[in-house]
Design a protein that fits this description.
The chain has 229 residues and is α/β, with parallel strands linked by helices. The chain has one domain: 3-Layer(aba) Sandwich (Rossmann fold), CATH 3.40.50.1000. The chain contains 9 helices and 9 strands. It has helices spanning 2-26, 32-36, 46-52, 73-83, 94-102, 113-125, 144-152, 166-175, 186-195, and strands at residues 42-44, 60-63, 70-71, 110-111, 128-133, 161-162, 178-183, 198-201, 222-224. α8 packs across α9 (186-195). The chain starts with a helix and ends in a 5-residue tail after the last strand.
């Protein structure tokens, strides 16, 4: 009996040792130094942005579209699979842009909740809102304006501005005297800075098809916390 008990005890100790080793591998832990070794980012909330505008007269503000107000990866994935599965060539094809705009692919794009909060806040302030995209319009017209208007319940909305280049975007920001520009890409932040206006970063969802991921806060811009959705 004693031999049996000893054998069982040994097995339990061995199993316990193995379990402890597995747990250690699954939970490597982190030192305080590692935890604090993060890039200094100027995090803000929508509420803090609103508070910073208190007392300011109504102004013109701009939003990038893809990954800023709409999670539109389904449209771009569809286009890639249809027109150039092995490359990004589809982005330069008129057939792709005409396809997604005339066939209203953006009805399948998901509105981002952070964009809804921002749009509602600026609408309540009486600000004029522009949606500015680097997309190509395509030869068949566009349905993006209608998709955004419906998704966010905007009663009166300017048509989406298609710039197709960073230079054109900067020119538009300057010409229309925008004060704030929201975007997810580094190019959005650079455009705002080049135009001399306030850049605010909306974080891109990790499962976006737009790679590589941008460096949030790279230019010292404000970054909206919890803004991937």
């Amino acid at each position: 009996m004693r031999k049996s008990f000893t054998a069982v005890s040994a097995l339990l100790l061995l199993a316990g040792s193995a379990f402890a080793e597995d747990v250690s591998n699954l939970n490597p832990g982190i030192t305080t130094s590692e935890l604090l070794a993060t890039a200094p980012v100027h995090w803000v909330s929508v509420e803090q942005i609103e508070a910073s505008l208190e007392g300011e007269a109504p102004m013109a503000v701009g939003f990038d579209v893809d990954d800023t107000v709409l999670y539109s990866s389904p449209c771009f994935y569809y286009g890639k699979m249809k027109y150039s599965p092995a490359s990004e060539e589809y982005l330069g094809m008129d057939a792709f842009w005409t396809d997604i705009h005339t066939n209203n692919c953006d009805q399948y794009s998901i509105p981002k909740e952070v964009a809804r909060k921002l749009i509602d806040m600026h609408t309540a302030r009486g600000d004029e809102i522009f949606f500015i995209t680097g997309r190509t319009r395509g030869s068949g017209g566009e349905t993006l304006t209608g998709a955004i208007k419906k998704a966010f319940g905007i009663e009166k909305m300017n048509d989406v501005v298609f710039t197709a280049s960073s230079e054109n975007k900067v020119e538009f920001l300057k010409d229309h005297k925008l004060k704030i520009y929201y975007g997810d890409a580094d190019s959005d932040m650079k455009a705002a800075l080049a135009a001399g206006i306030r850049p605010i970063r909306v974080m891109r969802a990790q499962n976006s098809t737009y790679k590589p991921e941008p460096k949030n806060g790279k230019f010292g811009e404000e970054v909206i916390a919890n803004s991937t959705n």
